[in-house]
Amino acid sequence: DEDSYTITNQSDIADSVSDVTNSMTYMIGGIAGISLLVGGIGIMNIMLVSITERTREIGVRMALGAKRSTIRMQFVIEAIMLCLIGGIIGILIGIGIGALLGKVAGFVIQNMYSQYANYIIMTVHPSVTAIMLSLFFSMLTGVFFGYYPANKASKMEVIDALRYE
């Protein structure tokens, strides 16, 4: 019977592993993109509420001579700082979970596969480039999603803002 056996070589296995790795990379990238979008919308909502609560303060600043660009810059910087703090917290949580999973994997290898324990070393070290890139994208999210509320704050009419209760 010709169909009772298969022949597989190392390059076929490497191609399969490469395909799976690429699929996982795209899936994780998609999840990260959706997370940035959801987080950005949350930042925009927080900023809109903040502007609504501080309408009177904005009116006073504008009445005292603050320029529209100054008001806009204040709220964009506030959104950037909010995203930066969230990004730092996310990085710390990610490093902690990565270190914990590395320890668990090391424990499993030591106890279940002790014959290979000298050959398999599990350490988790995020690169500085990845950390800086994630902080950059976090700040970029703050700029992108914080600009609309900041622009809305800068376009308020002084008399309406002062009259707001």
Gyration radius, rounded: 26 Å
Order of helices and strands: HHHHH
The average pLDDT value, as a whole number, equals: 89
With helices defined by DSSP (H or I, 4 residues minimum), what is the helix count?
5
**Computed structural class:** mainly alpha
Main sheet properties: none
Unreliable stretches: none
Quaternary organisation of the protein chains? single chain
The share of residues in extended strands comes to under 5%
Percent helix, as a range, is over 70%
End-to-end Cα distance, whole Å, is: 86 Å
Number of strands: 0
Shape descriptor reads: elongated
Description of the structure:
The termini are far apart. The chain is 79% helix and 0% strand. Helix 1 packs antiparallel against helix 3, helix 1 packs parallel to helix 4 and helix 3 runs antiparallel to helix 4. The chain has five helices and no strands. The mean pLDDT is 89. With 165 residues, the protein is mainly α.
List the helices and strands and how they pair.
Blueprint: H1 10-53, H2 55-63, H3 68-112, H4 128-154, H5 158-163
Which properties best describe this structure?
mainly alpha
What's this entry about, in short?
With 165 residues, the protein is mostly helical. The chain contains five helices and no strands.
